[in-house]
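thread from #wetlab-drylab

HS: before we spend reagent money on co-crystallization trials with zinc ion, can we at least see a predicted complex? here's what I'd submit
DV: go for it
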Amino acid sequence: MTYTDIRLGDIVQMRKPHPCGSTQWEVVRLGADIGIRCSRCSRRVLLPRTQFLRQVKTLVSPGTQTDSQMSEIQ
Ligand SMILES: [Zn+2]
């Protein structure tokens, strides 16, 4: 799948499970690095955007970020 339109609040499934066993993460920070929070243990991780996109398996639930916020990032 192609997933490049990253939004705050996106719930994504990663290819590799977290040590806690969860594969679902929520996008909590956007920028050069993408901040994600584990849906089970709430641990936060920062990943470079390219690495994040490689590790995402699928978008489970899209977030609610507005278009105006989007233009600030790009
Ligand atoms: Zn976890």
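DV: The CA atoms of residues 65 and 71 lie 11 Å apart.
HS: ok that's useful, forwarding to the group
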